[in-house]
Structure formats: C-alpha cells, structure tokens
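Could you help me review a protein record that somebody else here produced? What it holds is a sequence and that sequence's fold in token form. I need someone to confirm that the token line plausibly describes how this chain folds. Take the sequence as given and treat only the tokens as open to question. This is what I was given:
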Amino acid sequence: MRRARTTLASLALLALLPLAAACGDDTGDGPADGGADPTASDTASPSDDLTPSDPPDATSSSGTGEPAVALPEVVGLLHETAVGGEGDETLVEVDDPAALEQFVGQFSRRAGFSETVRAGVEDAATRGTAYAAVVGLGCDVPPGVEITPSGDGFAVQAQKVANPLPNCLAPVTTVVVAVVPD
C-alpha cells in the first residue's frame, strides 16, 4: 500500500514537470529544454548579463560609395519577468541622462530592472555612444539581435528562439544594450 502511494506521488510529480519547465521558476535553474532562462536576471547583477559579443560585421556600406557605417556592438541582453515595456524596432540613443530616464521609465512595474538597465547603459557609455532597445516581450529571451543601419539610426531585430516555450505565466522583457565605440 505504501509503495503504491509513493508510485502515484512520483507519477503526479512527473506529470507536472513539463508545466514547470514551460513557465520557468525563481530558483535560478534553467529550463529543462536548455533554452534561455527567462528568470536569470532576477538574481544576476548587471555585469553578469553584459557580455561582449562579436557582431558578424562591425561596419556596413550601402554600396553607393558612401563610407562604411560603424554598427553598434552588442554589450549585453538584460531580461526580467513581468516588468513591462514596449518593443522597439530601432535602437534608442541613451547617452543623454534625460533620454536614459525616459527609456527606463517604461519599466515602472519593478524599479530593480530600471536600475539594472541604467547600470548596463552607464557601463556601455564609458566605451562610446550607448544605445538600448526592448527586443523581446514574451516567454523566451532571444539568443541575440541583428543590428543594421536604417535612415539616421539603427534597426534592431531579435533572433529567433530555437525552442520557444509554448506558454508562460508572465512575459519576460528583454533589453539589448549596445555601444558605438569612440
């Protein structure tokens, strides 16, 4: 009888695992499928999330004989669950204190994320002109972004998630921080 209860309890827990993996958790463990952990920045410091990445092409030429344009380098992707924000299609220059305050003001649901983004941008600004954009609002954190010249600025688009989660309890906001070196 005791063995039957233990087996039933084990089966019940196994049945709940896919639901727990799809929604993430607050323990800091990543999802079971090896995808991006949408709760990692809940406990990470800004410097943990700001890892330089090599863009595929740091300059771009329009093919019209104009000089190549220096593309911003991605400094990091910052993310947190249930902080709000609005998606951006272009990078926002956030070197100016007023522009930075306007950008982080959209994360009013949680002041901690505003501080994380502010710290990331201030760190990037020590190396050049800092930019930021909300590139993800959903269950997953994009693995990276593509930045291209667009008019007077830069277009930004999140890369596709290889194994997107089917659903989540609260959306994850992902912000890219980028810099054009001086």
